[in-house]
Automatic annotation (TrEMBL):
<feature type="domain" description="Glycoside hydrolase family 5 C-terminal">
    <location>
        <begin position="414"/>
        <end position="483"/>
    </location>
</feature>
<dbReference type="GO" id="GO:0000272">
    <property type="term" value="P:polysaccharide catabolic process"/>
</dbReference>
<dbReference type="InterPro" id="IPR018087">
    <property type="entry name" value="Glyco_hydro_5_CS"/>
</dbReference>
<comment type="similarity">
    <text>Belongs to the glycosyl hydrolase 5 (cellulase A) family.</text>
</comment>
<dbReference type="GO" id="GO:1901136">
    <property type="term" value="P:carbohydrate derivative catabolic process"/>
</dbReference>
<dbReference type="InterPro" id="IPR052066">
    <property type="entry name" value="Glycosphingolipid_Hydrolases"/>
</dbReference>
<protein>
    <recommendedName>
        <fullName>Cellulase (Glycosyl hydrolase family 5)</fullName>
    </recommendedName>
</protein>
<dbReference type="InterPro" id="IPR017853">
    <property type="entry name" value="GH"/>
</dbReference>
<dbReference type="InterPro" id="IPR001547">
    <property type="entry name" value="Glyco_hydro_5"/>
</dbReference>
<feature type="domain" description="Glycoside hydrolase family 5">
    <location>
        <begin position="18"/>
        <end position="400"/>
    </location>
</feature>
<dbReference type="GO" id="GO:0004553">
    <property type="term" value="F:hydrolase activity, hydrolyzing O-glycosyl compounds"/>
</dbReference>
<keyword id="KW-0378">Hydrolase</keyword>
<keyword id="KW-0326">Glycosidase</keyword>
<dbReference type="GO" id="GO:0016042">
    <property type="term" value="P:lipid catabolic process"/>
</dbReference>
<dbReference type="Pfam" id="PF18564">
    <property type="entry name" value="Glyco_hydro_5_C"/>
</dbReference>
<dbReference type="Pfam" id="PF00150">
    <property type="entry name" value="Cellulase"/>
</dbReference>
<dbReference type="InterPro" id="IPR041036">
    <property type="entry name" value="GH5_C"/>
</dbReference>
Length: 499
């Protein structure tokens, strides 16, 4: 009898598939520690990966920090790498797949996390902080200067370009993990930021907002008034409430499109090609995950393209790895996330993926942190939209006690299809009624079963299981597990009421 479990994952056109040709939905979480005091290692043990399995999280975005990998130029830290090895092997023991994410926030460990100091060429410029950590992207000359020098591939102290050092680091990691079957791919850079050209971003947004405000109210706001509105969190949030409409929000946010498009075409794409080529010298199989620019998080359309192989042909093992955050993320107003803005952001991602003909792995969404009941409707709406597009995804991020948060129990831990024989048409879990529905068209040439995760198998009706000849695959000492539905080559539809 064929093994029903998923053993490997690759890209087939615009879908993720496993070794048996089944469509795969990655449903996972980010695992991160940005503290150099902990050697940037997640503070979790082997048992954590067992809990991931019980929660139905089949994958992690494992954050890797350049400063951890290569704290000194050309000296890879074997102690750090062996700790990474340990987490990857723990994940493998519990069937958890891993995407390695080369993370940065504000470019460098000097300002937040990312590049080592030897690779941070900020030319002595001042570093400024804002009320929200990410404000420094827009106000810190040091951060912008460090990015500028990176995108220009300025030489480090040894005369070798910064990007060339970065590519060699990725090549080393690919060589190390190419035969580790649960490592399925490489997320080349977290939220690439354009550098000093981003100084054009705020004027472009303010101009677009001012035009919309004048159109809606007949009142023309001056430059100082507009700056005042956006420089203070409460007035900024008030302004955002006026953008609680997809069309209005889109008209403002797409004002950044010329800036981001130029950066992605002129700087980001050649960088991606350089790193991808270095990886492909040693690993032709694992998936390369490409992110849009930092501004793409809030719905600016992306202009990235698929990387190519050394022979010039399109690389088939490439996936689109966008992030999606409403503008209130990381502020005290996060519970006031706009559903219409989130809908707009995910729609733009879906449209971009169709143009690219790549599968989507939403590498970050959420960031609800210590939120209570107020975050439940926010999380439920987001996951419903993720389901709508059949996106694979990784919630940002794991924190101690997450499994006890109301939004975790009522949105993140949920039924979903992991491996589907044929084409997944749609699926949805209704938390209010605890009803799960799913439609898929099986491929008659595939014999592998469909696997659906349920947090509580005891809530399934024996009668409904009998109809589909379903078998239970349980997790040890847990109520959770998979329902295995044998193939019959037909259009399948289930609507199950869970007790």
């Amino acid at each position: 009898m064929e093994d029903p479990l998923v053993r490997s994952i690759q890209v087939d056109g615009d879908r993720f598939v496993d070794h048996a040709g089944r469509e795969i939905i990655l449903s996972g979480i980010n695992l991160v520690n940005k503290s150099p005091k902990d050697n940037y290692m997640p503070l979790v043990d082997k048992d954590f990966y067992k809990r991931l399995q019980e929660w139905g999280m089949n994958s992690i975005r494992l954050v890797v920090i350049w400063d951890g990998v290569e704290p000194e130029m050309d000296q890879f830290d074997e102690k750090y790498l062996k700790e990474l090895d340990k987490h990857i092997k723990w994940a493998a023991e519990y069937g958890v797949f891993v995407i390695l994410d080369m993370h940065q926030d504000l470019f460098s460990a000097k300002y937040s996390d990312g590049a080592p100091r030897w690779a941070t060429l900020d030319e002595g410029l001042e570093h400024y902080k804002g009320e929200v950590w990410s404000d420094s992207y827009l106000i810190s000359p040091a951060v912008q200067g460090a990015f500028d020098n990176f995108w220009q591939n300025k030489p480090a102290a040894d005369g070798k370009g910064l990007q060339d050092h970065y590519a060699e680091m990725w090549k080393m990691l690919a060589e190390r993990y190419k035969n580790q079957s649960n490592v399925i791919g490489y997320d080349l850079m977290n939220e690439p930021f354009p550098g000093s050209i981003a100084q054009q971003a705020m004027p472009a947004l303010l101009t677009a907002y001012g035009e919309l405000h004048a159109k809606k109210t007949g009142i023309i706001l001056g430059e100082e008034e507009l700056m005042g509105i956006w420089s203070e969190p409460s007035s900024r949030n008030e302004a955002l409430q006026k953008l609680d409409n997809a069309a209005d929000f889109g008209s403002v946010i797409q004002a950044l499109s010329p800036l981001t498009s130029a950066f992605e075409k002129e700087r980001l794409q050649p960088f991606y090609q350089k790193v991808a080529q270095a990886i492909r010298e040693v690993d032709e199989q694992k998936i390369i995950f490409l992110e849009h620019t930092y501004f793409g998080n809030m719905g600016v359309a992306s202009s990235i393209q698929r990387t190519t192989l050394p022979n010039g042909k399109p690389d088939p093992q490439v996936a689109y790895a966008p992030h999606a955050y409403d503008l209130v993320v990381d502020t005290e107003f996060s519970s006031e996330t706009s559903s219409s803005r989130v809908d707009y952001i995910l729609q733009v991602i879906s449209e971009t993926a169709k143009k690219l003909q790549m599968p989507v792995w939403l590498g970050e969404w959420g960031a609800y942190y210590g939120g209570g009941n107020n975050m439940v409707p926010v999380a439920q709406h987001a996951i419903t939209q993720i389901e709508k597009y059949n996106f694979s995804h990784a919630y940002w991020s794991y924190e101690n006690g997450l499994e006890n948060r109301p939004y975790f129990l009522q949105s993140l831990q949920r039924p979903y299809p992991f491996a589907i024989n044929g084409e997944l048409k749609n699926y949805h879990w209704k938390p209010d009624t605890n009803e799960f529905e799913m439609t898929w068209q099986e491929n008659p040439s595939l014999k592998a079963s469909t696997l659906i995760f349920f947090p509580d198998l005891s809530g399934l009706s024996e009668e409904e299981l009998k109809v589909v000849n379903g078998k239970l695959i349980t997790h040890e000492n847990s109520n959770s597990g998979w329902v295995e539905i044998p193939a019959n080559g037909k259009l399948r539809k289930i609507t199950w009421q869970l007790d």
